[in-house]
């Protein structure tokens, strides 16, 4: 389940950096929701934050409609963490003295979630005894601070008071949320979906793969910090945010795309249901029943390139290759045979008899290595994605 970070935004020139903070959290799979002080709307219109977060932006203390939950209470309960960035000296002072006179400060007073403050202000305001004492008061109550940086300030002064770099803020928040970032610096290649092999202008050979597992793995890898390339056949799914998504149709097209990036990948997960064969001849137009019966009833097939086997043979030391086996018979035996034949590090075997697995949001699989076969309970494909990535890191 996604973590939710409520981001409090106060009236400060550094407010534009909040956009980068939102993006950084989203790339890590965190839901971001914004509450603004009314004065902060003089710097940025709430519409911008609504567009970035795809969530309503809370501003007025009494903006909730009759019958709605009490706004500052409902917001306070949604948050797994309340980040205030940028936070002005004024709001720091209010929080230190328990003043709750707007939606942001009443929410901060009501929440039981951890509060993190990233201050931003003029150097003299930052160094003022009152501000320093207020920050110390809040620290003594368990509120965390992401210290301001020194440098050139918007007012022209030079000194401490500049909002911390958005990447620093995002990293600190993710650490507090205990969001895994164990794939930072690694490159992950994922294939997903079916391939489509045309017979003529309107007919083709394919399969019912939805691509959901591959997309879930790509999303999880992005959240965990990886540089991700997703090569997918035709599926009705949006591009994975934070990943390079390459869309193809045929097995040959998928092979060419995989071939260009495989050698640089640290982990390659081949979930795509690639057609084993394709028609040797593709008709230019539509083949007509009663006219082209010979071509329709005798379709000569040729073998497609075996993407997993080709990449498995050429994998380098330290590179992890994961394959999938969709089976209707003895899943473990077939997965183990595929493991050896394709030179994979492990195979994710699943029973697809009677339409199981294809298109579903959940799956029950078997992780097969050369020494073991580990059955997993039924779980969401999002959870399965992390299990597979964990197993890849253990190889």
Structure notes:
The protein folds into two domains: 4-177, Flavin prenyltransferase-like (Rossmann fold); 187-394, CoaB-like (Rossmann fold), CATH 3.40.50. It has helices at residues 17-27, 46-53, 71-78, 89-96, 103-110, 123-127, 129-140, 166-177, 212-223, 251-261, 293-297, 307-314, 331-342, 381-394; strands spanning 4-9, 31-36, 81-87, 115-119, 144-145, 149-152, 158-162, 187-192, 197-198, 204-205, 227-232, 244-247, 267-270, 277-279, 301-303, 320-327, 346-351, 362-363, 365-368, 373-375, 379-380. It is of the alpha/beta class. The protein has an eight-stranded mixed β-sheet, with helices on both faces. A five-stranded parallel β-sheet has the order 2-1-3-4-5, with helices on both faces. Helix content is 34%, strand content 23%. The two termini are 26 Å apart. The model has no long low-confidence stretch (mean pLDDT 90).
Briefly say what this structure is.
This protein is an alpha/beta fold. It has helices at residues 17-27, 46-53, 71-78, 89-96, 103-110, 123-127, 129-140, 166-177, 212-223, 251-261, 293-297, 307-314, 331-342, 381-394, and strands spanning 4-9, 31-36, 81-87, 115-119, 144-145, 149-152, 158-162, 187-192, 197-198, 204-205, 227-232, 244-247, 267-270, 277-279, 301-303, 320-327, 346-351, 362-363, 365-368, 373-375, 379-380. Helix 4 (89-96) packs across helix 7.
